[in-house]
Amino acid sequence: MEIVALAGGVGASKLLLGFSREMDPRALTVIVNTGDDLVLHGLAISPDLDIVTYTLAGAVNPKAGWGLRSDTFTALEILRRYGREHWFNLGDRDLATHIHRTALLRSGSTLSEATDAIRRAWGVAARILPMSDRPVPTLIRTEIGTIHFQEYLVKHRTELTVEEIIFDGVEEARPAPGVLEAIASAAGIVVCPSNPLISIGPILALPGVREALRNRRERVVAVCPIVGGKSLKGPSDKMLKQLRYDVTALGVARLYSDVVGTFIIDVQDAAQQQSIEALGIQVVVRATTMRTPADKERLARAVLGALHQRAQAGAAS
Amino acid sequence: MEIVALAGGVGASKLLLGFSREMDPRALTVIVNTGDDLVLHGLAISPDLDIVTYTLAGAVNPKAGWGLRSDTFTALEILRRYGREHWFNLGDRDLATHIHRTALLRSGSTLSEATDAIRRAWGVAARILPMSDRPVPTLIRTEIGTIHFQEYLVKHRTELTVEEIIFDGVEEARPAPGVLEAIASAAGIVVCPSNPLISIGPILALPGVREALRNRRERVVAVCPIVGGKSLKGPSDKMLKQLRYDVTALGVARLYSDVVGTFIIDVQDAAQQQSIEALGIQVVVRATTMRTPADKERLARAVLGALHQRAQAGAAS
Predict the structure, then answer these.
(1) Is A42 close to B75, i.e. CB distance below 8 A?
(2) In 3-state terms, what secondary structure has residue A277?
């Protein structure tokens, strides 16, 4: 069964690791947010693509959830000596990825091609697609001005107030080759438990993606990233609140109601089941917090189970 | 007394370290060969500039004579995983220098400006000038074809036969800002004990440099890089032989006879003194092998002594 996953970074990668163990990873296509991408020190950095690739390769730093296992940060000290910006963590081994990607892009490769070369070098069997080959930087309007999402996240540690989220140039961008085709042909589509505003949001904002998902809505299963009113990971809760969305499973369900057929919410949020179902969304209640490998595999099985059920229902109707 | 030194890499940097201790380093200007420069993985690498800078900063790897002290090579392992060329050693901390230089060049800085920013970041008081702001790659014609000097040196470990040395584009290049001015105004000029063919040769080949030195010939002191028929460091002896030059102090003196007034040769080569003097070159015989800091300082004092003598002779005449 061909599965497509829409993914951000750390939260998504945990579930994807579960998938890669619970299904043939060659049947998995991951469409990854690139709104977080930035150019720093002349290097093309794609944080979410790297998190997904490193995680599926079993090479991710398990404590941080990003970067490479056992990496060192000595180059960064020297970059700091040179007066360069050093708020963005760049490990020594990780730097090689950015150098390689930058060299590939400069020599004419697309981001899709560079991404594919990198995942193959790591022996990752799943297909990894950037959401677009064109940069679509996520900008955050705050009280100090409009800044790149990574500056908001890393430099300012999410301590600013989010007034607006801008997907810069998204109208002119196109989904990367294979993105719309994968969504159209997959047996099941998963929206990973990533930040709905700045991880899944940029993917949905690309011309044609939202429509493609709407057409397959019955096959789309999302895992809620908000549990008990808090983010599983990252600033989703804070951003939702500041932009006046409900910081609940229901609030996320409303953002996804046109594209998601099934929503997996945490047992803590079981009381919201009826309100979500009122949006025309099927609800599955599960333990969704992923701490151990077993947690990830269990949640992946739950998602796959929901997808199978939907596929059978689709075949029967 | 303002001193200008023409320098290649490791051999030169030892003497330069001696100078920086035996004189006010702020009165020292080093003109560095950039014929070895290359672009690898999209990064602008200037091996000789970095050797000189790191050495004068006291940060060079003391065993190798190049690279940074205590550097690690983990990024290189990952670049290798990506199928990139990995014959050129790139330390993790050293990579930061190449990244910084590349970023500066891409943002519009000249190589001179980038070099100055880097030496200042390392607290180097001497002025360091690239020989030119324009790339002048040294190419080596061999039995397998014409290759970059670094490929000959590092990838093929000097095991190919040198048929011709080409300073690619040198006719169109110009000395970097300050190079000709420094030569014209210095109280003394030192040709460091570097490879005469591929370290000093590219500097001399730049339009105007040879003429500028000829005009100051009486103030130019060279230290012979050949001792007892062998290179102090690197493939000078092999290259001289393959190109049918004499692999002796006299052979080097012939290459420099129009631009050098005084030649410092090793005690082992004292028998060649008369033949070299027959070229119209004053000869100073000294121990020139530099193993310890004291060796470097002693040779630096000998060079400074010869320069002082020439300066006084010039003033008296």
Answers:
(1) no
(2) helix
Write the pLDDT tens digit of every residue in A13-41: 999 999 999 999 999 999 999 999 999 99
Kindly state the DSSP code that residue B247 receives in the 8-state scheme: S
Residue B125 contacts A where some CB pair is shorter than 8 Å: no
Is 3.30.300.30 the CATH classification of the domain at A32-130?
no
User: Which residues are bridge partners to B45 per DSSP?
Assistant: B38
Please report the pLDDT score of residue B317 as a whole number.
60
Place of tokens 């077993």: A294
Determine contact: B85 vs chain A, CB below 8 A.
no
| Residue A123 and residue B83 in contact, taking contact as beta carbons nearer than 8 Å | no
Nearest CB to B82; choose among A68, A84, A96: A96
Angstrom distance (rounded) from CA B256 to CA B195: 12
Burial class (CB in 10 A: 0-12, 13-18, 19+), A307: buried
CA distance A189 to A1: 11
CA A76 to chain centre: 26
Q: Identify whether the C-beta of residue A141 lies closer than 8 Å to the C-beta of residue A162.
A: yes
Q: What is the pLDDT of residue A312?
A: 86
0.90 surpassed by complex ipTM: yes
Q: Is the pLDDT of residue B145 over 90?
A: yes
Q: What pLDDT is attached to residue B312?
A: 86
Query: Over chain B, what is the mean pLDDT?
Result: 96
Residue A317 binned pLDDT confidence (cut-offs 50, 70, 90)? low
Distance in angstroms (rounded) separating the CA atoms of residues B32 and B7: 5
What is the rounded distance in angstroms from the CA atom of residue A81 to the CA atom of residue A101?
Answer: 25
Find, among B59, B66, B57, the residue nearest to B9 by Cα. B66
List phi, psi (to 5°) of A110: -85, 165
Report the C-alpha gap between A194 and A199 in whole angstroms. Answer: 6
Using only C-alpha atoms, what is the Rg of chain A?
19
Top CATH class of B3-130 equals mainly alpha
Q: Is it the case that residue A219 has pLDDT exceeding 80?
A: yes
Identify the CATH class of A179-316: alpha beta
Instruction: Give the predicted TM-score (pTM) of the model.
Output: 0.94
Per DSSP, what are the bridge partners of residue B140?
B147, B165
Closest residue of A to B123, CA-based? A81
Residue B310: per-residue pLDDT: 85
Please determine, for residue B26, whether its predicted confidence score (pLDDT) is greater than 80.
yes
| C-alpha R_g of chain B | 19
For chain A, what is the mean pLDDT?
96
Contacts of A76 in chain B (CB under 8 A): 96
Domain spans, chain B: 3-130, 179-316
Q: Within a 10 A sphere around the Cβ of B64, how many other Cβ atoms?
A: 14
Nearest alpha-carbon partner for A37 in A165, A147, A179, A137 = A137
Name which of B71, B78, B96 is nearest A82 (Cβ-Cβ).
Answer: B96
Averaged pLDDT, B265-277: 97
- Cβ contact B121–A97 (<8 Å): no
Query: Please, are residues A34 and A49 in contact by the beta-carbon 8 Å criterion?
Result: yes
Amino acid at the residue B37: D
DSSP state of A145: E
d(CA B106, CA A242): 39
